[in-house]
Write a structure and sequence with these properties.
The complex is a heterodimer of chains A (560) and B (334). Chain A contains 16 helices and 23 strands. Chain A has 560 residues and is α+β, with helices and mostly antiparallel strands. With 334 residues, chain B is mainly alpha-helical. Chain B is built from 12 helices and 2 strands. Chain B has a two-stranded antiparallel sheet with strand order 1-2. The C terminus of chain B is likely disordered. Classes of the chains: A alpha+beta (560), B mainly alpha (334). The interface between A and B is large, with 77 and 66 residues.
């Protein structure tokens, strides 16, 4: 081949080939040899990248997945995701806990717990963490969830005391679920208003089962197992989150065996592609996202005036009854979705198919619209009243293919009962701005639930959410009262009964059409064993996953 | 002396253009609809925290105050903080620019080597079968949307045939850092599909451009004279025809840079290439004002510099341009 080349090119080409050949053996040597039970590399095909790995400031799901491995909570919910009481919680940093009166909770830290720089984890760290999460300068999104905790103080180096403002069933959940304990000795010197941009967030030192290795912007984050982790050495030696901006490419990486896991496949098309990949095993688990068509009950752009269409409860009910939610879920999501019995995902323990819902009944929807004066007077196929057509816009983000498809399907369903719908596809930030300021008729919005119904439902559907995330300004004092009572209920049975009454009521009021709740399906390489997926956080139990030595492949054995 | 004045004039004009672009981008991103405080599910943030964040990043100030502050920072070499990435913009750009340069550089190489070669080949066989076939092929390739071609190549060569990797700049396990010749090869392997996508579409355009330029020069008297002198065909083509046709090629170089940068935005997204284009898209979607303005600054600087360089090269290659420039500069009164 060389002889065929022009003489000028021969020398540089030879040097390049020599360099590659010389480099190749060193790389091959590195492939050598981890063997045994603690090898294994897991590559996650992640869509999106965290902004920081400082737990006070992160909201992205991928950031929380990574932080699960780096920073421990005092305790965590169990597989049941029951958030009431403390029976179903698993100890982590706290070895044990006890109640010291109705409003005081005492945690005893595990004396074996260490920060990865060798310092002990102490009760001072716990108190420091609570203070930081509550500091307005840190601007933590989790601050509202901690408002019922009055104080956290160290009693001694391994004992932290939580004092609450009031008694309620989810006291323990609030104490442990929202905060990951932070190293006071490393973060105290950093001014709080600079935490969001602190270098610590890009090279964190934690106390979890994995240590941070490197973060390559827009490429990957790598963690390595801490072999001295006090709760047991993790079985997978290396975790890599590989970032791609496109879900389709992420799925392709798993199909082509260039990644090991995609924790959410989202669409039936992706599911089919993954089913055809022989090395992939699929694991279903409950989803935490629900999507709804929000009706703005105030005038578009003027929250002081009622909306001429959606302020009328009967019209909202008719528009809800005109939507065949079950068929939509079947056609667009298949087994990856369910019709929610209210504003909730299937993650919540209050999910109950027996909750009363409005039926799909176009005849009844039409008769309600007729009764309210909305008839097709001019024969153009669109109902009208006093010269005004029954027409509205659906606001939908361009980034969500699924929601755009839903908008088109809704447009068709409403056309069938004489309602004209226009679709506004805009960027997510514009959707946020418009719904936040009330500049919309209807919008297809999604909400993610944490395992407790208390905060999410109150924030989005009660008067307390006005100016917050109750964008449609739904207000029913009876619903608010039921939610307050359900949150405060001391027995699970009472809470369940009250939540059900609240859901019956909100469904009857129809402030939105609750379209679908996503069911998760994780695609994981079949060589990975002992896979446990906790519905609220698939990565919470990652340290127990393993790859048997018989299943190791090249990337598992790589030594660096 | 007049050449220096010409250079200074072009330099001042270039700086003015960059300044105008930065100003325009700054104003547009600030007045564009969209809320920088919106989380991934349109609502995640605590409403009480949004005003705090907006104050922290100075977004509550009037636009002219923000602009004045931005210019002051810029003069000190400070590009500001990215609130979506939680880090200085300078750091984010320093990590991504090399990737875009690698991609655009290799794509440019493919574009010009393949394009130039095909253009010359076609011009030497004008209206014969190879020329007709290549004309149609290049027209077809030039008409292809780059994102479509990227998806097809990805599906075919990465997912089906598994010849190339599915996105990213390197193997995350073996080569997270380039610390060996093996990892250099790994980087090249990862670069093949994105660079080919960008380069081939450009090469099709360059080939058509170069063919036309070669044919135009072939009509000139000096080419006929060279042949009449009895020079070999190889010498006529390389010494006389190609050298003169290269002027339009240099012009195309200046025009190709914006194409490469805009093309890189899509290609970087599809191939998960961690370059500036992808950074810019994410910044626009999250309304990260400082980051958007900074990427505008860098992109305009590259494009203006490329055109500036092309002007200089044309001046060097074509004495007529130098003379015209000299004549355009008024002489000082005696």
């Amino acid at each position: 081949m060389l002889s065929a080349m022009p003489r000028r090119v021969r020398l540089p080409f030879s040097i390049l080939v020599a360099a590659l050949v010389a480099g190749a053996p060193s790389a091959c040597e590195r492939r050598g040899g981890c063997t045994g039970s603690y090898c294994g590399t897991l590559i996650d095909a992640a869509v999106g990248e965290p902004g920081t790995l400082l737990p006070t400031s992160t909201e992205e799901i991928v950031a929380r997945d990574i932080e699960e491995q780096l920073f421990l909570k005092l305790a965590d919910v169990g597989m049941s995701t029951n958030t009431v009481g403390d029976e179903d919680f698993q100890p982590l940093l706290a070895q044990r806990w006890e109640w010291d009166g109705p409003l005081t909770l005492v945690f005893h830290l595990d004396p074996r717990a260490r920060w990865q720089d060798g310092q002990r984890v102490t009760a001072t760290d716990v108190a420091f963490t609570f203070d930081a999460y509550n500091d307005s300068a840190v601007a933590s999104p989790y601050r509202p969830q901690l408002k019922r905790i009055a104080s956290v103080t160290p009693r001694d180096s391994l004992t932290a005391v939580f004092r609450f403002r009031e008694r309620y069933p989810e006291m323990f959940y609030d104490a442990v679920y929202h905060m990951r304990i932070l190293p006071a000795h490393l973060l105290r010197p950093v001014p709080r208003d600079q935490w969001k941009t602190a270098p610590f967030g890009r090279a964190p030192v934690g106390d979890g089962p994995y240590r941070f290795v490197r973060w390559q912007a827009a490429q990957s984050i790598e963690l390595v197992a801490d072999s001295t982790f006090f709760l047991g050495r993790p079985r997978l030696r290396r975790l890599i989150w590989r970032f791609t901006p496109d879900l389709g490419v992420a799925i392709s990486q798993v199909v082509a065996d260039q990644a090991d896991i995609r924790e959410q496949v989202v669409t039936p098309e992706n599911l089919e592609r993954l089913r055809a990949a022989p090395q992939i095993a699929l694991y279903p688990y409950r989803g935490n996202v629900y999507t709804f068509l929000s009706f703005n009950q105030r005038a578009n752009g003027d929250t002081a005036k009622p909306n001429p269409i959606f302020a009328d409860r009967e019209i909202r009910r008719a528009l809800s009854m005109a939507v065949d939610r079950a068929s939509l879920v079947r056609s667009r999501l298949g087994e990856l979705g369910k019709v929610p019995p209210g504003p909730m995902s299937s993650l919540l323990w209050i999910w109950d198919p027996e909750i009363r819902q409005l039926p799909f009944d176009t005849a009844q929807a039409s008769s309600i619209l007729n009764a309210r004066g909305w008839r097709d007077h001019d024969g153009d196929g669109i109902r009208d009243r006093a010269g005004q057509p029954l027409a509205f816009h659906i606001l939908v983000p361009t980034t969500s293919v699924l929601r755009k498809q839903y908008a088109r399907l809704l447009q068709e369903e409403y056309r069938a009962i004489g309602v004209r719908v226009d679709i506004d596809e805009v960027e997510n930030s514009v959707v946020g701005q418009r719904v936040g300021t009330g500049h919309y008729d209807t919008a297809i919005l999604s909400r993610a639930n944490d395992p407790s119904p208390s905060s999410g439902i109150a924030q989005t559907w009660t008067r307390a959410g006005f100016g917050g995330s109750n964008f449609g300004r739904y207000a029913n004092p009876e619903f608010d009262r039921l939610v307050d009572r359900a949150i405060a209920a001391t027995s699970p049975d009472d809470a369940r009964r009250l939540w059900r009454s609240a859901m019956d009521l909100i469904n009857a009021d129809a402030p939105a059409v609750f379209l679908y709740s996503l069911e998760n399906m994780a695609a994981i390489h079949s060589r990975v064993d002992n896979v446990q997926l906790r519905p609220d956080s698939w990565a919470a139990l990652l340290r127990g996953w393993r790859i048997p030595s018989s299943g190791l492949i090249d990337r598992d054995r790589v030594e660096r | 002396m007049t050449g220096v004045v010409w250079l200074l004039r072009r330099l001042v004009a270039s700086v003015a253009i960059i300044f105008a672009v930065v100003t325009l981008v700054f104003i547009l991103i600030h007045v564009a609809p969209g809320d920088p405080c919106v989380g991934s599910d349109e609502s995640a943030r605590d409403p009480a925290m949004c005003p705090l964040l907006i104050r922290q990043f100075g977004l509550d100030q009037p636009l002219y105050v923000q602009y004045g502050r931005y210019l002051l920072q810029l003069l000190q070499g400070n590009l500001g903080y990215s609130f979506s990435l939680h880090r200085p913009v300078r750091d984010a750009l320093a990590e991504t620019i090399p990737f875009t340069l690698q991609l655009a550089g290799v794509a440019l190489l493919i574009d010009f080597l393949v394009g130039l070669g095909l253009g010359i080949y076609q011009a030497l066989r004008v209206n014969r079968l190879p020329d007709l076939v290549l004309s149609n092929v290049t027209l077809f390739a030039y008409s292809l949307p780059t994102f479509w071609l990227a998806l097809v190549l990805l599906l075919l060569f990465a997912e089906k045939v598994k010849l190339f990797p599915l996105g990213g700049p390197s193997d995350p396990v073996l080569c997270p850092l380039i610390d060996s010749a093996y990892c250099v090869a790994d980087r090249i392997w990862h670069l093949v599909l994105p660079a080919l996508t960008l380069g081939l579409v450009g090469a099709a355009g360059t080939a058509r451009f170069q063919r036309a330029a070669m044919l135009e020069v072939a009509q000139q008297d000096f080419v006929r004279t060279a042949r009449a002198k009895g020079l070999s065909e190889r010498r006529v083509v390389l010494r006389h025809q190609l050298r003169n046709a290269l002027l339009s090629f240099i012009t195309r170089f200046g025009l190709t840079l914006p194409f490469l940068l805009t093309g890189a935005v899509l290609i970087e997204t599809i191939f998960a290439w961690p370059g500036m284009g992808r950074l810019a898209v994410d910044a626009i979607l999250t309304r990260d004002h400082a980051l958007v303005t900074a990427t505008g600054l860098i992109a305009s600087t590259v494009v203006v510099s490329g055109n500036f360089l092309a002007d200089i090269l044309i001046g060097i290659a074509d004495p007529r341009v130098r003379v015209a420039a000299d004549e355009a500069v008024p002489l000082l009164p005696a």
